[in-house]
Specification:
344 residues, mainly alpha
C-alpha cells in the first residue's frame, strides 16, 4: 500500500473516531480534550488548536486552546503520579521530572507558537470577515432599498390585482355567457347535423336513382351511337357504290367522247378529201351535227346526273356530319352527367 493510501486510510479512521467522540461527548470542551488524547496517544500526532478546530468545527477558536491546556495539565499530572508511584531512585525521579518539565516547556512553546500563528491567521480572517461584513452591510442596505422598491411594486401589483380580480369577474361572467351561447350553438349544430343526415340520406337516394338513370341513359346513348355508326357505315357504303357507279359512267362517257372525237376526226378528213362531195357531206354533216347535238344532250344529261350524284354525295356527307355531331353531343351529355356524380 502506498503512503497516499495509508494517509487516506488513517484520515478515514480518524474521522470515524471523531464521530464516535461526538456521540460520546455533548460538551464541546470535553470533546476537544478527548480529541487531544486521541491524536496524541492513538495517532502519535501533537494536537494543535488549528488542527483540532478543523476536525471538530464547534465553538470558538478559544475552546480548542483551552482544551489543549487542560490536556497538557492532565498529561503532566498523570506523569507525576506514575513516577511517584514507581520505585525509582531519587536522582532518576529528578531527571525524569526535569525531562518532563523540558517536554512540557517545549510542548507549551510549540503550542504558544502555533497559537500565535493561529491568532495571526484569525486576525487575517477577521479582517477578511470585516471586509465581507462591510460588503454584506452594503448589500443589506441595497437589499433594504430593493425591499422598499419591492414594497412599492407590491402595492402597485396589489392595486393591479384588485383590478385584475374585477376583470377576472367580468371575464368569468363573459365566459359563463359564452358557455351558454356555446351550449345553444351545440344544440343548433346537433339539430343541423340531424337535418344534414336526413338530407344526406335523401341525396344518397337521389344519387342512386341518378346513377341508375345515367346508366340507362348511357346504355341508350351507346345503342344510339351504335345505330348512328351503322347508319354512317351504310351511308359510306352507299356513297362508295354511288361513286363507283359515277366513276364507271364517267369512264363510259369519256370513252364515248373519245369515240365521237375519233369519228369527228375521220369525218373532217373525209370532208377535206372529198370537197366535191360537199353537198352530200353537208347532209351528212347535218346528220353528224344532229348526232353531236344528241351526244351533247346525252353529255349534259350525264353531267346533270353527275351533279345530282354530287348533290346526293353532299347530302350523304351532311347526314354523316349530323350523325357525328349527334354522337358528339350524346357523349358530351353523358360526360356532363358523369362529372357532377364524380364530384359528389
Amino acid at each position: 500500500m502506498s503512503q497516499t493510501e495509508q494517509k487516506n486510510s488513517a484520515e478515514q479512521r480518524l474521522l470515524l473516531d471523531i464521530e464516535k467522540l461526538r456521540r460520546a461527548h455533548s460538551n464541546t470542551l470535553e470533546l476537544y480534550v478527548a480529541l487531544a488524547h486521541l491524536l496524541f496517544f492513538k495517532y502519535d500526532s501533537i494536537p494543535t488548536t488549528n488542527r483540532m478546530y478543523q476536525l471538530v468545527r464547534r465553538g470558538s477558536m478559544g475552546t480548542p486552546a483551552q482544551a489543549l491546556k487542560i490536556f497538557w495539565t492532565q498529561l503532566r499530572e498523570q506523569a507525576q503520579v506514575r513516577m511517584q508511584k514507581a520505585a525509582l531512585p531519587e536522582e532518576l525521579l529528578r531527571s525524569a521530572e526535569q525531562l518532563l518539565a523540558q517536554l512540557w516547556d517545549e510542548a507549551v512553546g510549540h503550542s504558544t507558537q502555533h497559537l500565535h500563528e493561529e491568532r495571526l491567521d484569525m486576525q487575517t480572517q477577521a479582517q477578511k470577515w470585516l471586509q465581507a461584513l462591510e460588503k454584506a452591510e452594503e448589500g443589506a442596505e441595497q437589499l433594504r432599498q430593493d425591499q422598499a422598491r419591492l414594497f412599492e411594486r407590491l402595492e402597485a401589483q396589489s392595486v393591479a390585482l384588485v383590478q385584475s380580480k374585477q376583470q377576472s369577474d367580468e371575464w368569468q361572467a363573459r365566459v359563463q355567457q359564452l358557455e351558454l351561447e356555446l351550449a345553444q350553438a351545440l344544440a343548433r349544430q346537433q339539430e343541423q347535423q340531424r337535418q344534414w343526415q336526413t338530407e344526406r340520406g335523401t341525396l344518397l337516394t337521389q344519387v342512386k336513382e341518378a346513377k341508375a338513370q345515367m346508366q340507362q341513359t348511357e346504355e341508350r346513348a351507346q345503342a344510339h351511337e351504335q345505330r348512328a355508326l351503322l347508319e354512317i357505315e351504310r351511308a359510306r357504303q352507299q356513297a362508295r357504290v354511288s361513286i363507283d357507279e359515277l366513276t364507271h359512267e364517267n369512264q363510259q362517257l369519256q370513252q364515248q367522247i373519245g369515240e365521237i372525237k375519233g369519228r369527228y376526226a375521220v369525218q373532217t378528213q373525209q370532208l377535206e378529201r372529198a370537197g366535191h362531195q360537199q353537198q352530200q357531206l353537208q347532209a351528212q354533216l347535218k346528220e353528224a351535227e344532229q348526232g353531236c347535238y344528241q351526244l351533247a344532250a346525252q353529255l349534259k344529261q350525264h353531267e346533270l346526273q353527275e351533279q345530282q350524284r354530287t348533290a346526293r354525295m353532299r347530302r350523304l356527307e351532311q347526314r354523316l356530319q349530323r350523325a357525328r355531331r349527334r354522337a358528339t353531343r350524346s357523349l358530351r351529355t353523358k360526360r356532363a352527367r358523369q362529372e357532377p356524380n364524380t364530384r359528389n
